[in-house]
């Protein structure tokens, strides 16, 4: 029996939905799991059942799943508590691994972000940011979980696929570790590559690619067509289906004739996607300077340690 604790920090809840999306495989796995803490599923009180505790406590567990980046003091305290109580910590989803979309806020200081949201947004009456002392204090930026505590396993994806979650849980039940292969989205993409651009400028993401409906194998690489695709620097696996041959999985956005936006994060933890994608575009004769809002676009899902305030 593996005892499981789960916590969520700066999230949208999509990673938890992916857990539920496991479907029938969950029936095989559940008898071997004892869920001891999971706010989305059970009413376990962090400060004791009567609320008389003085600090948040999470029960001891073999496996600790964390979704979401670390945005405030409470997230940080709970991350430290999870590390103390769980033998194995998994950063589940791109927000936990790299900050995800919430880490785009790292392009601003906390003060500038609050000022923008509460005073400058069109359509909202200006007001003061909440000052209630019971609210957790925001940290200076969004942190990936491994910037605050040691993480044993990273499982990226926005959200991670249910198939990968099953593979992860089965690996833990078998006493093994788990890691996605170091392959890029391009490695699993069926489009035709001629190693040169078709000319013109880099287009905005919502412009259509040239394609034959139902065919992927005669569509020209989207970067060569002039759309901006992060496939060369993004980890493969977004279309993982249990029991299917990984070599036949077509990346999800490519299947919709859309460029990859990088939601699985870098191919390796230590990669430098900005330098790598600029090199990749230059190689086929594209000018990376044409990418609109370049810094945020390249780091859309991975801004925790990479984006810095641009405020004047
Ligand atoms: S990784 Fe994606 S699905 Fe998961 S919490 Fe973040 S935004 Fe939501
Ligand atoms: S850049 Fe995009 S379209 Fe081109 S091969 Fe890579 S994933 Fe496919
Ligand atoms: S193609 Fe890229 S952006 Fe689209 S789901 Fe896959 S990894 Fe995410």
Automatic annotation (TrEMBL):
Presence of keyword DNA-binding: no
Domain NADH:ubiquinone oxidoreductase-like 20kDa subunit residue range list: 12-171
Recorded GO MF terms: iron-sulfur cluster binding; oxidoreductase activity
Pfam families: Oxidored_q6
InterPro entries in UniProt: Hydrogenase_assoc-protein, NADH_UbQ_OxRdtase-like_20kDa, NiFe_Hase_small_N_sf
Domain of life where this protein originates: Bacteria
UniProt cross-references to SUPFAM superfamilies, sorted A to Z: HydA/Nqo6-like
Keywords, alphabetical: Oxidoreductase
Name used for this protein in its record: Hydrogenase, group 3, VhuG subunit, putative
Organism: Dehalococcoides mccartyi (strain ATCC BAA-2266 / KCTC 15142 / 195)
């Amino acid at each position: 029996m593996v005892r499981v604790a789960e916590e969520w920090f700066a999230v949208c809840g999509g990673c938890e939905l992916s857990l539920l999306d496991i479907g029938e495989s969950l029936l095989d796995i559940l008898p071997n799991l004892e869920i001891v803490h999971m706010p989305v599923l059970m009413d376990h009180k962090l400060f004791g059942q009567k609320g008389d505790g003085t600090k948040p406590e999470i029960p001891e567990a073999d496996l600790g799943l964390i979704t979401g980046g670390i945005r405030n003091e409470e997230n940080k305290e709970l991350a430290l508590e999870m590390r103390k109580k769980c033998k194995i910590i998994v950063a589940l989803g791109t927000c936990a691994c790299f900050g995800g979309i919430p880490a785009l806020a790292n392009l601003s200081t906390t003060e500038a972000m609050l000022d923008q949201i509460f005073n400058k947004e069109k359509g909202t009456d200006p007001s003061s940011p909440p000052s209630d002392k019971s609210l957790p204090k925001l940290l200076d930026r969004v942190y990936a979980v491994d910037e605050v505590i040691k993480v044993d396993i990273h499982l990226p994806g926005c959200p991670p696929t249910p198939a990968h979650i099953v593979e992860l849980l089965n690996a833990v039940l078998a006493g093994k570790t788990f890691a996605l292969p170091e392959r890029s989205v391009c490695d699993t993409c069926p489009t035709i590559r001629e190693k040169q651009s078709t000319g013109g400028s880099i287009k905005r993401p919502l412009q259509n690619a040239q394609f034959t409906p139902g065919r992927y194998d005669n569509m020209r690489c989207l970067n060569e067509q002039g759309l901006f695709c992060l496939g060369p620097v993004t980890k493969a696996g977004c279309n993982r289906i249990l029991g299917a041959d990984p070599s036949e999985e077509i990346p999800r956005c490519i299947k919709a004739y859309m460029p990859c936006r990088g939601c699985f994060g870098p191919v390796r933890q230590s990669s430098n996607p900005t330098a790598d994608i600029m090199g990749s575009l230059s190689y086929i004769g594209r000018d990376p300077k044409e990418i609109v809002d370049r810094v945020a676009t390249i780091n859309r899902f991975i801004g925790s340690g990479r984006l810095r305030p641009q405020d004047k």
